[in-house]
Amino acid sequence: MTVLRTLAEQTDPRHTALLVIDVQNDFCHEDGGIARRGGDLRRVRELVVPRLAELIRTAADAGVFIVLARIVQSPATNSEAWEALEPADGDRLVVEDSWGAEYYPGLPLEHADLELVKHRHSAFAATGLDRILRSRGIRSVVIGGVATHVCVEGTAREAADRDYYVTVVEDATGAAFSHLHETSLENMRRYFGRVETCAAVTSVWTALAVAESEEILS
Question: Strand, helix or coil at 169?
Answer without folding.
Answer: strand
